[in-house]
Amino acid sequence: MVESPKGNFSAHWIFKYKEFFNILDVDENGMVTEEEFIDSTTKRAQQILPSWRAMAVNGILSSAYDLWWLNKYTNYSKSITFQDWLRADEVELPITREDLVKFAKDWFDALDLDCDSKLMVDEYSNFLILFRNTGKVQDIFDAINWNKDGVIDTNEFIHAFMGYWADQEPSPSDVFLGTRY
């Protein structure tokens, strides 16, 4: 099981999580719907990725939606407010570290267009487009490319993915999904 802070989230983590919620809240009405989470993101994927990779993105999003969102802790709601989403994260969901690593690997594989086990800045920029990034792609890429070799390898991606979702204090992983400013 992934350890849950049982509502003892740091102010930084809540801020970061709220930014993610805002990325997904395309119409900015304070609620994220299944359509915004899955369909809108998939449409962005269809504009920048080969069709089978866009379908993989849809599968990843659908799995994440089913696991994290569509459960008894959210009353199986098709739309959710930030407060409701935060409350759902206060429980110990049946999500293992292995589940998170699998999600990270699935994302990596969907983005690795030339299948060389490395993400170049243009491949990583596709990921940022999916999450409506408005920040400087190269700066974000450089923050995730910890060994500074000009590529993001599988381990760096997984480490950043895990850090984004779990780190309670500021870290380079905070820009993993891009920024909205």
Automatic annotation (TrEMBL):
Keyword annotations: Calcium
SUPFAM superfamilies xrefs: EF-hand
Pfam families cross-referenced by the UniProt entry: EF-hand_8
EF-hand domain residues: 12-47, 132-167
Coiled coil start-end: none
Protein's UniProt keywords contain Glycoprotein: no
InterPro entries, sorted: EF-hand-dom_pair, EF_Hand_1_Ca_BS, EF_hand_dom
Gene Ontology terms for molecular function: calcium ion binding
Designated name of the protein: Mitrocomin-like
Organism: Lingula anatina (Brachiopod)
